[in-house]
Design goal:
The protein contains 5 helices and no strands. The protein has 135 residues and is mainly α. It has one domain: Up-down Bundle (Four Helix Bundle (Hemerythrin (Met), subunit A)).
């Protein structure tokens, strides 16, 4: 398995871990006191405020970013692009997504958006050589 393929697995698990942090923070509390409600997890997430609400939003964004990343890695590999380049871009994406999530938790929106753009650029860079072959 390549580094980029491992990064795909990490990217798939990151959103789950992101929300897991918010859920763990309510461990030991009864549902009536705001504890995690496994019977209605989406309802519980919708009621959160502050950093827990931002964790839910970061989780959603992580799942939204995942398909482009997976396809970018697979397309680069299928096109026979340099694996080291693909690995570096995949690691950059993971690193930027970790920073993005931390900034989401910390409620630093302008910098978070900039980091999001960097992660998107890493994805697009995986397609760049493939796209140039079309013209």
């Amino acid at each position: 398995m390549t580094i980029a393929n491992t990064a795909v697995l990490i990217a798939a698990v990151m959103p789950v871990l992101t929300m897991g942090i918010a859920k763990a923070a309510s461990a030991g509390k009864k549902r009536s006191q705001g504890g995690y409600d496994n019977n209605d997890p989406r309802g519980w997430a919708a009621k959160q405020e502050g950093w827990k609400a931002r964790a839910a939003a970061a989780q959603n964004n992580g799942f939204e970013a995942l398909p482009l990343f997976v396809f970018g890695v697979l397309a680069a590999q299928a096109a026979g692009l340099d694996q080291a380049r693909t690995d570096h871009l995949a690691l950059a994406f993971i690193g930027l997504r970790i920073v993005y999530t931390a900034l989401y938790f910390a409620n630093i929106a302008p910098l978070r958006s900039l980091v999001w753009g960097g992660a998107l650029a890493a994805n697009i860079a995986m397609f760049a050589p493939t796209l140039s072959n079309l013209f």
